[in-house]
Amino acid sequence: MSEHKTVVCPYCGFGCRLLVDPKTMKVKPYPGEPNRGKLCPKGLYALEFVFSRDRLRRPLKREGQKMRPISWGQAMEEISHKLLEIRELYGPDAVAFIASSKVSNEENYLLQKIARLFGTNNIDNCARLCHEASVHALKLALGTGAQTNPYEDLENFNAILIWGYNPAETHPVVMDYILKAKKKGAKVIVVDVRETRTMAFADYKLVIRPGTDIVLANAMANVIIGEELYDEEFVKARTRGFSEIRMAVRKYTPEYAEKVTGIPAGTIHEAARTFALAGSGAVMWGMGLTQHVSGVENVLAVINLALLLGYIGEKGGLYPMRGQNNVQGAAYMGALSEFLPGYVPLTDEKFRKRVASLWGVDDLPTERGLYLTELWEAIERGDVKALYIVGENPAVSEADFMRVRRALRKLDLLVVQEVFMTRTARYAHYVLPASAFCEKSGSYMNSERRIQWGHKICEPMGDSKPDWEILTMLGRALGLPGFSYSSVEEITAEYFRLFPELEERSVDELKNGEGIFLPRKRLHTWDFATPDGRARLFAVERVRPWEEPDKEFPFVLTTVRLISHYNTGEMTLRSPSLVKLMGEPRVLINEHDARKLGIRDGDWVEIETRRGRIRMRAKLGGAPEGVVVVPFHFKANRITSPALNKAGTPELKFSACRIRKL
Ligand code: SF4
């Protein structure tokens, strides 16, 4: 094992470590935490895309319809000159930055530092599209914005409630923890809009009508409170808001919930009782909860269940399961338009000034910046003139992406720092070639807030550079203070200084160990991070979807992920082994609906919403009546809903649509 080096899997937020032999570039699973000798196919074949012939090798500049190679020096000079000119003419908020959930903590830290020193909080990352609703709800309820417990706790809880989340496809290795818990006798309750692979392991399978999650959660709370199954001592001593929630859930009887959710009242009763009587439990959720206009309220409603039962600390945990490998790190490093590093609000003057002083200035901008999902309208209005994107592909990943593509064309300056010529990069004025994850060193934070080190395994391809090096050059070219880094470790040491919990820890410890939890392994064992130290129970009412099915668009369109695909496909489609495993993406249609529409298995169909239409082959089954299920990875966002919830997350999981056989 000594010749192997460890890297962090570049795909999902579970954060498996890979052991790579630099001579053969063969991958083995890391035997220790967190993956314990396991990997899913994506991890096993993680290095394949790195050696793709499609890799960008030189900086490129647009000249008319063509992209022409230029030197790094020329690229930096021209980009910085244009950014400064736009700031001079229109102010710093005319520039926006998009960070990446795939690059390291150091790289996200540097990009948000550049944005804020440049004078704007227009810095965001794709956490906005997935779990920002969880962050807002967790901040409101507990005062912190991330997963509360480590994965290892999962196997010791007596019940696991999995909501709008399909780990068997999205985080396959976490299933191992869930199955270990089940072996020890834990009850597994799964709530989803369709029968997922995860449901195959469930004791209770709650197939819910899309958009009715709050009704189910409130009905479960109704049972828990009505039958006095809640933890009275915990509720009295450590929470506020109990009387309000007791009043609010009174009308959400299981019988009422059955009519709205489609789940039999008896099943709701039983699932609620089972979860409550287990004595300890986890609530895990994914984008099935957050990507709704009711995303924040949905998450508050399931947090209520854990708080009523005292399933916090040793007795339970809240697990908003992250999508990309460093989405947790990007958010924690401050690549969000409303938070400084550590989810500290921009209005926290003491912390803000401390960060400013570390960066060699008096203060930082205090106005919330634009959410990633608000950028496109701001560009259309002419408020944003320049956009600098690191490793994100909004021309495919954003809801209703044709409006994003229109906006990208309007920019005075678009810079894309990328590994491949993505759909977004095709609109750029400058494309900067970035090194892949194994061609550089740096740290990443997984969903359980474990910071892990990824070691450099091989040299960068062509003239590509690690993102931190490119951003160091950019900071210098812009004349910002403190951009004199000559190693990535200097940046790690700098971000360590922002967090009191890391002050005593060293970069060497991080490089040689199994990771460091920030701020600590388990949160809220004795208090909450709210002003009075108590958690808040929030009475939430059902929020209806932005567009409901009607005569014209009678079906609900929802999007899902597949085990061998990853996000917009730029990496997985360049991995020959994964492509072999994938098969053709299909839209899932209920058999009964298909019969009515004359659609047979394998037929080409058109799926249309108010935003446009896409074509795909049909697969019959796997969707309840009235629901159409599309893998999100490629073109589904051509037609998804851009309606935003309070945290700026679009309603990707619910659009009204119609289908027809072609
Ligand atoms: Fe990578 Fe996630 Fe698969 Fe682990 S479970 S190998 S982190 S994609």
Automatic annotation (TrEMBL):
Molecular function GO labels: 4 iron, 4 sulfur cluster binding; formate dehydrogenase (NAD+) activity; metal ion binding; molybdopterin cofactor binding; NADH dehydrogenase activity
A biological process from GO: formate metabolic process
Keywords: 4Fe-4S, Iron, Iron-sulfur, Metal-binding
Limits of the 4Fe-4S Mo/W bis-MGD-type domain: 2-52
GO cellular component: membrane
Matches recorded under PANTHER family: NADH-QUINONE OXIDOREDUCTASE SUBUNIT G, RESPIRATORY NITRATE REDUCTASE
Name of the featured protein: Formate dehydrogenase
Organism, as annotated: Thermococcus eurythermalis
Lineage: Archaea, Methanobacteriati, Methanobacteriota, Thermococci, Thermococcales
